[in-house]
Amino acid sequence: MRLHSISIARIALDVPLPTLFDYAATGIGRDDIGRRVLVPFGKKIAVGVIVELASSSELAPQRVRQVIAVQRDIPPIAEDVLSLLKFCSRYYHHPLGEAVLNALPTRLRRRQALKLKNAKLYRLTAIGAGIDAASLPTRSKLKRDVLILMRETNDAIDETTLFAIASTARNAVKALLELGWIELCDGAQSDNAAADMPLQSATGPVLTMEQAEAIAAVRETASGFIPWLLMGVTGSGKTEVYLRLIADTLANKRQALVLVPEINLTPQLEALVRARFPSTMVVSLHSGLNESERLHGWLQAQSGVAGIILGTRLSIFTPMPRLGLIVVDEEHDASFKQMDGLRYSARDLALVRARDRAIPIVLGSATPALETFQNAIAGSYRLLTLKQPVNAMPAEIDYIDTRHSPLIDGLSQELLKAIDATIKRGEQSLIFINRRGYAPVLMCRSCNWSADCQRCSAKLVMHATNRRLQCHHCGHQAAIPAACPDCGNHDLLPLGQGTQRIESALERTFPAARILRVDRDTTRRKHAWEDMRRQIHANEVDVLVGTQILAKGHDFPQLNLVGVINADSSLYSTDFRAGERLFARLTQVAGRAGRGASRGRVLIQTEFPDHPLYQALRRHDYSAYARELLAERKQAGFPPFVHQAVLRAEAPQISVALDFLQRAALSAHEIQAAVTVYDPIPAPLVRLAGLERAQLTVQARSRTALQRFLGEWHERLSARAERKVRWALDVDPLEV
Ligand code: ADP
Ligand code: ZN
Ligand code: ZN
Predict the structure, then answer these.
(1) How many angstroms is it from 479 CA to the middle of ligand 2?
(2) Ligand 1: which atom is nearest the Cα of residue 329?
(3) In the structure, what pLDDT confidence band is assigned to residue 116 with cuts at 50, 70 and 90?
């Protein structure tokens, strides 16, 4: 339906103002809502998205400018996504325009319309996807390369890219077309044809009792919005549960969205999903994609041709017309929350989206966030538990009491002995330390000078391999001084341990062992981590030293010993979430041990072996510990029993930031609401990259009360022109 009279389009633009912008347009109708437009904005031409239509504007007629063009190259952003974005903007008190534009692939934020028709796109057919490229004879090398490339690139590839493989690639493509292994994607029509292909799914393993029960519970439940918490110990086969539920979803001709933390979206996971559903187009959306890969994946989701979207945080905004299931794996993971700009939680938005679409959502974790766990206890989510690892016994966890065992370079004799025995058995060990570099502090023995970052309130970390000091907060680097800059003393002392120091200590103790360090420094190069994983699988490594990167979701069958050092530091942290996080992290690390045939062993060096956290961890009993933490939170009035928001401010001087927050607190007190307003305080890391930061926490028992308060507060704060302070609201903050 096109209106031929002039109407007003209310347009989202990527500007930090909490409003839509009115433009006049001719010949637009309701089916243009969600379409990109070009509009004059100031002296420039901007790309916007039509969010609403109106018959008139509150602006004076001479101030209403004309839409330059409506881009009808692709279907509009669907209403449910726009409504999710509106919710997001309201709930997080962030400009709608920024939210909408940031949710689009970069290519769609450009002024040029897409010219999709001209570029011929090819993709694998179901048959092609089922062909094992490696099994092709060597004389078909080119065909094999094309197949592999198409598989790696989410299936749809333009001809220019394909023909660039080799001068004769054109022939290979032609041959593959004739074989029916690849096909031309011909706009939306053939896309839908693909979605109508009969579903093939490879058979998975025989389910365990617990898996079967969990799946049956979901199947037997009426359709509609139902949040499930799948709480399963590491290795209990949560992925298999997701796969079966995804199979159901695909069989009903619906799409499934699987959100995973960035670090877990591995080629293995993608391969597993593709292999299980050979006739389904699987799109994976993550930060490693280039602009056009992301665009194509997004378009395949939007057209409905992709059956499964595997994606990180941002993919919660992907349009999926046939969305029938959302899975959030490792739902407790902090990476689901964006920490700057639009500070949304993809997990929480996933719940909102599932509710709006009236579909089930499965949150999976071995150590659910306490917010989630409390919802399950209270009955708002339904709880499914997997208590037994599928293939092995749960790892045996022991503590090394460092009050009684002297440490050399951070390592105890017991741990070294265990590593030695593991090497002798031909198995692998992993030493986990959550800090990269050589030593976190470089200090002068005679005057106590230490190397500090000039721009942050943090110490510079000493890195031995490139002999530099590095700030892990702002990236600042400096040479390691030959002598103390204050007193000239040459005796500078590295204090504490990082991965590099542990690596070199192990090299000294086990000169014949093959030691591999895995941290952000050694995995920076593209494919570095992939190569390392291959080495580990090929058993070319005896001892791994690594950070968080190693902790998550990798299956190393020969790994049987995990040693943990320096875990205590989070035990008595001022952050009330520290315990919950440490438990989650240690559970994940412990889960790396004993994924193969023999039972894994975990040795944790600590000064507090009797701490309740460590005791519960040894029993693999997160529920018990989580209930304890919940009782403490309830008593202290912390989330999830209250809802919080933090007003964060930064300025060149802390006094300016604090002063702004003081005034913000005053204006907060003027608002009638059942909300507690705390005093402004400096942020835990006061100086960051040359700016000083402070924060002000507000909290309320009722989410609605908090939201109503935030709306009014935000409006008052926005009304003032603050020139010296940058501020932002963080709703449901993970750090207070
Ligand atoms: P989680 O995600 O719960 O930690 P995974 O999904 O990684 O566990 O499963 C652990 C291992 O068990 C994987 O190697 C998986 O292939 C295997 N697995 C899962 N379910 C079964 C099953 N029913 N029978 C045999 N192996 C299974
Ligand atoms: Zn000195
Ligand atoms: Zn710094």
Answers:
(1) 16
(2) 2
(3) low
